[in-house]
Amino acid sequence: MAQWSLQREFMEMPPVTRVYTSACVITTLLVQMDIVTPFNLYFNPTLIIKHYQVWRLVTTFLFLGPIGFNFVLNMIFTYRYCRMLEEGSFRGRTADFVLMMLFGGACMLVFTMFFSLLFLGQAFTIMIVYVWARRNPFIRMNFFGFTFNAPYLPWVLLGFSYLLGNSVMVDLLGIAVGHLYFFLEDVFPQRSGGVRILKTPEFL
Asked: At 3, is the pLDDT very low, low, confident or very high (cuts 50, 70, 90)?
């Protein structure tokens, strides 16, 4: 019975959320089982350009670290906010949601050349959380007993990450890219003379 319930829950997930979260879990399991190593997955421009290891452009977003507390926490936030965003403001706009992810991923790859970050999965999650939070400004959140409005959630996660001893640069990158997308998509077009810069191409 539990198996059918889990399968039904999986199939009810919106398509982009299902594909991305599944890819993250599968990648982490492959590392956990020593089928692949993180050295084959991290972002390395030299290996991508000179040795044509183009898969690193994708796998840097899929490995969320070894299975443990950080991984579970990241997966919960990835699944929850990716799904809520896809079923909320992107409902019926799957192509636009894919464009947001492609835009965010591309920006992170450019920025990380200056900051030498190896894995961008956590930054990607923070970006998704940031966009959802800004589009739901009046929702009250509760995080380990602390209550606040949704727009503060990315900053709370950044502080929590700092307390766990993680680099805040990853979270700051996610916040910066999320803010850039939110500004271009939700703020700038509403201003006098503003236009919608991010237009979804027909092939999506």
From this structure: low
